Amino acid sequence: MELLQNYELRLIKQANQGDRNAFREIVEDNKKKIFYLAFDFTGSIQDAEDLSQDVFIKAFRSLHTFKGEASISTWLYRITLNTFLALKRKKSFEIEKNQAPLDESVSADPVFPGNPSTGNPETYAESRQMQMHIQQALDTLSPRERSVFVMRHYRGMPGKTVGELLNISEGTVKSLLSRAIRKMQNALGFYRDSLDLGMEVQQ
Amino acid sequence: MRKCKKIKDLMPDALNDNNVLPQAELRKLREHLKDCQRCSEEYKKLAALLAVMNKRQRPQMSDAFWENYSLRLEEKLDAAEEVKEQKSPAKIFNLIDWLDGFDFKIRWVLYPLTAAAILVVGIAIGLYLSHQPGKDIMNTAVSSLRRLSPAVAEHFDNVLPLLLDYSNSSPQQTGNSPEENILVEKSTVKKLLLENQLLKRVMTKNNNISVNELMNELELILLELSNDSGDSEETRRAVQRFIKENNVLFKMKTLEKKDKQTLAI
């Protein structure tokens, strides 16, 4: 743990002194984590790329503020969260699903599991439909509810850490999570009633 | 019921694939679910929801994408650095962006603080300018607040009831003749006209544009009334229209009000 901390502090120090290679290393270590977190927040590849790259640009500019109290990834999570919430607040950030990417190399035909070329087309169609409904359920959440749900449920972050990242109490994290769950239960109610998910509830 | 609330709070964590709930808490939850039908139902509903949400798929990006990702980021970083260098002298214009960089709670303190700081600086500049002698802008402001001479104020007091009579009179509504509505003697009108002409000459020297303009309009009205032989309906309407179109009453009241305010200062 201490080794990792020292390694990260050294990287930050070098990057802060203008060493671009050190910053590249930080990017390479974290780009997938931050991109997929941004994807969970925005729901689109193009927006995830824009948001995650904004995060790295902000991080680059504020290297001097990193004090090593948390890991680099936690620091980047915080910047991702703040950037996402700020963008939503400005309303200049539209989540456009199925939007044609601006840069062709960005599209690069991302492979979702269950691609028709690799599996049963019917299963693929069902899966696509379910993905659409899941996305719609996530879109019913406010930016803060969505942030809490993504970090708490998809990332498994402790409530305390989520609260620290959002600067809210653990109790508020719980209530945001409950509200998010209620909204998604309404949005996905028909799955619960009509689909056999083949799920065993373990008690 | 309180126990149910606590148990409900534990449910999302119990269903989290990342084993975020400590074993002791998990045991407590399972014990409660055996005894509480309502919580058990709730737990099943939540499990069904999260099972659907856990089926969410994320795109598997190709190696080419990740290579290009880093290249695109390098380009953006270079561009951002260039923009930063160009913009650095005018950082104040990025105030909002800068504030947005802060955490959610801190921002709610920083926004009003920044607004208050801007206000204080604005007031300080205003006070500083107001104590600078010979500034044109301040002279203009003082000029607009310059007092009417007592004679002009008295003249306005004399003319105002006459104009009010004309602008409010309506023979069609009351059934009275114009003569009954407007009981102003010709001699009074002539006296007011003469007074207006004399004061106008004095005020022209004072270069008070708004007062001069008003006195010109009053002169036209008084001339019309003094030339009219019998307070005809036609004259009444013409005068009424003139008063209305030129906002004569409003101007008189505004000037008198301003005059009183200046006197109070």
Question: Short description, anyone?
Answer:
The complex is a heterodimer of chains A (203) and B (265). With 203 residues, chain A is an all-alpha fold.
Task: Please render the helix and strand layout as text.
The complex is a heterodimer of chains A (203) and B (265).
Chain A: H1 2-16, H2 20-42, H3 45-61, H4 72-90, H5 104-107, H6 121-139, H7 143-154, H8 159-166, H9 170-187, H10 189-194
Chain B: H1 2-14, H2 23-35, H3 37-53, H4 63-87, H5 95-100, H6 104-130, H7 136-144, H8 150-168, H9 171-174, H10 178-181, H11 186-206, H12 209-227, H13 233-245, H14 248-264
Q: How would you describe this structure to a colleague?
A:
By secondary structure, chain A is mostly helical. Chain A has helices at 2-16, 20-42, 45-61, 72-90, 104-107, 121-139, 143-154, 159-166, 170-187, 189-194. Chain A has two domains: 2-90, Rna Polymerase Sigma Factor, Chain: A (Orthogonal Bundle); 119-194, Winged helix-like DNA-binding domain superfamily/Winged helix DNA-binding domain (Arc Repressor Mutant, subunit A, Orthogonal Bundle). Chain A is built from ten helices and no strands. The relative contact order of chain A is 0.09. The model of chain A is unreliable at 95-109 and 194-203 (pLDDT under 50). With 265 residues, chain B is an all-alpha fold. Chain B has 14 helices and no strands. Chain B has helices spanning 2-14, 23-35, 37-53, 63-87, 95-100, 104-130, 136-144, 150-168, 171-174, 178-181, 186-206, 209-227, 233-245, 248-264.
